[in-house]
Amino acid sequence: MQTPAAFEYERATSVEGAIASLQRLGPEARLIAGGHSLLPMMKLRLANPEHLIDVNDLAELAYIREAEGEIRIGALTRHVDLLNSDVLARHYALFRDAEQVIADPVVRNRGTIGGSLCQADAAEDLSAVCTAAKASVVIRGAEGERVVGMDQFHVGPYMTAVGAAEMLTEVRLPLRAGAGSAHEKVERRAGDWAIAACSAAVWMDNGQLGDVGIGLSAVGLTTVHLTRAEELLRGTAPSDELLAQAGEIAAADCAPTADGRGPVDYKRHLVGVLTQRALRRAIARATNQEA
Fold first, then answer.
1. Residue range 238-282, pLDDT digits in tens
2. At CA 38, angle to CA 58 and CA 135, rounded to 5?
3. How far is the CA of 201 from the CAs of 51, 97, 108, in angstroms?
4. Average model confidence (pLDDT) for the chain?
5. Looking at the domain 184-286, which fold is it?
6. Chain centroid to CA 3: how far?
């Protein structure tokens, strides 16, 4: 059985205490909540933190609420709570779409949105969801808070904008009229990592696409933000031809690698199909036409 290297362990009792511990212990300290990403990496010795700071007791970071024209989600909100949230289902249905196909009930009961985003795994679903939803995240350190958009949050494979003595505390989603969203994923078996996945969000304005967000999982070194496809669609009346063009752009702008889940050409084709499906469902939800 693979076991991690030795480490020291402590439980945080407040956000301020967790940040103070990160400052005191230095860059070899890591926060842990669900642990479903970090612990397997530690067992494989791909991650070897000297200190683990358990933040599971920080109940003040577990919430989903509307405030100041946004939906605000605490970083310790579990996958199961995202799945069951009526607020998210009403305004951002792609969260429920994604959570229904993330891992299994054991993982969904313990894993958190903050842990998923901070892992920065290119195959992880919620990063694409938040990219499409044009989310921002709140990062807190000893000197205060800063708000970072998803475009600036992931800075490389398994790398984020969160500093060594900082922690992600909140995810913010804009509340805007005419919204519709969807997440489409193909996997080898239920709960598996995606072969490819697409998240799409649209905001309709007088029959036109006032704004569009599209993110891809598992087809690049990081989450892929399809800015060219968004620009094509923004300000247009949706049509099958435009959606097909967006799918072609998505297939061209991703960067999949061949592996046991399939060759590059197959994954590019899959991305094109999933992008069209996600956009079509998002538009149908925005216009109350979903069957």
1. 999 999 999 999 999 999 999 999 999 999 999 999 999 999 999
2. 65
3. 39, 12, 23
4. 94
5. Enolase-like; domain 1 (3.30.390)
6. 29
Residue position matching structure tokens 């305004």: 91
The pLDDT tens digits for 92-104 are 999 999 999 987 7
| Six-digit token string for 259 | 């592996």
| Residue found under tokens 């799918």 | 247
8-54 CATH pick, 3.30.450.20, 1.10.3720.10, 1.10.530.10, 3.30.43.10: 3.30.43.10
Burial of 223 from C-beta contacts in 10 A (0-12 / 13-18 / 19+) = buried
Helix (H) or strand (E) holding 180: strand 179-187
DSSP class of 120 = T
Q: What is the Cα–Cα distance from 248 to 255, expressed in whole angstroms?
A: 13
- Which of 116, 149, 127 has the alpha carbon at shortest distance from 223? 127
Contact (Cβ atoms closer than 8 angstroms) between residue 267 and residue 259: no
HSE at residue 279, side-chain half, CA atoms within 13 A, is 31
Domain residue limits, the chain: 8-54, 59-173, 184-286
Domain 59-173 annotated CATH 3.30.465.10: yes
Residue whose structure tokens are 């949706």: 238
> Do 221 and 154 contact (CB within 8 A), yes or no?
no
Q: Does residue 201 contact residue 92 with C-beta atoms inside 8 Å? A: yes
